[in-house]
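Example S7 (C-alpha cells).
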C-alpha cells in the first residue's frame, strides 16, 4: 500500500510527468537550451512545485474558504 502511495504522491508525479513535460515545452519553444539543461531546469521547477503540493496537500493554490469560516464560528 505504501508503494502505491509513493507512486501517486505529488513529488513522484512532478518527477515522472511534469519534468519531462516542461523540458519538452522548453525545447519546442526553441529556448536555445541543450537537452540536458532543459531537463534539469524542468526537473528543478517540477520538484519545487511537487514539494509545495506535498506540503499543502493540494496542487491548487486556492484554499477552500468554507472550511476556514466554519472553524471561525466554532
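Recovered sequence:
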Amino acid at each position: 500500500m505504501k508503494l502505491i502511495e509513493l507512486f501517486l504522491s505529488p513529488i513522484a508525479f512532478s518527477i515522472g510527468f511534469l519534468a519531462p513535460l516542461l523540458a519538452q515545452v522548453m525545447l519546442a519553444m526553441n529556448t536555445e537550451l541543450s537537452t540536458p539543461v532543459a531537463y534539469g531546469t524542468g526537473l528543478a521547477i517540477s520538484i519545487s512545485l511537487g514539494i509545495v503540493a506535498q506540503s499543502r496537500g493540494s496542487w491548487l493554490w486556492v484554499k477552500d474558504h468554507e472550511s476556514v469560516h466554519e472553524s471561525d464560528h466554532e
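Notes on this example. The mean pLDDT is 81.
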